[in-house]
Amino acid sequence: MPVGINFDSSGSDIANSLERYMDLVDARQKLVTSNIANADTPGYKTRDLDFRSQFQNLLTGEQPQAIEVAGLKTNNDGNNVSLDREAQLLSENALRFNVASQLMRGQISQLKAAIDEGRSG
């Protein structure tokens, strides 16, 4: 059976949403690691994603847009990266990824069970 066939549109909608969610987690991971890499770069401004609004945008087909984070303490060199903040975001991002991965595994298990049931029936 071809891989691209969807039997249950609600299940495929969930899987598509999870895929987009994981894409957003990946985009945020790249931003956070870039912020950390530039922690000593004079004038560098911290960038991030408004996770909730960007997820909604992804669901409608838009690409995530990074924004400069306001309200952070700026050092004498103009850099405003907070390594504590970025470490917290790394932890949060890992948690988001783990939850989404577990949900995706559940979706795959349900699909596999449906396929197996179809073969035996």
What does this structure look like?
With 121 residues, the chain is mainly alpha-helical. A two-stranded antiparallel sheet has the order 1-2. The model is unreliable at 1-8 (pLDDT under 50). The chain has one domain (9-120). The chain contains three helices and two strands, in the order αβαβα. The protein has helices at residues 9-37, 51-59, 83-120, and strands at 47-48, 67-68.
Low-confidence regions:
1-8
The N- to C-terminal Cα distance equals: 16 Å
Total number of strands: 2
The share of residues in helices is: 55-70%
Q: State the helix count.
A: 3
**Helix-strand string:** HEHEH
Strand content: under 5%
Mean pLDDT: 89
| Overall geometric form | elongated
* Overall number of domains: 1
Q: What radius of gyration results from the CA coordinates?
A: 19 Å
Strand order of the largest sheet: 1-2
Question: Largest sheet at a glance?
Answer: 2 strands, antiparallel
Brief characterization of the structure:
Helices cover 63% and strands 3% of the residues.
What distinguishing features does this structure have?
elongated, two-stranded antiparallel sheet, disordered N terminus, mainly alpha
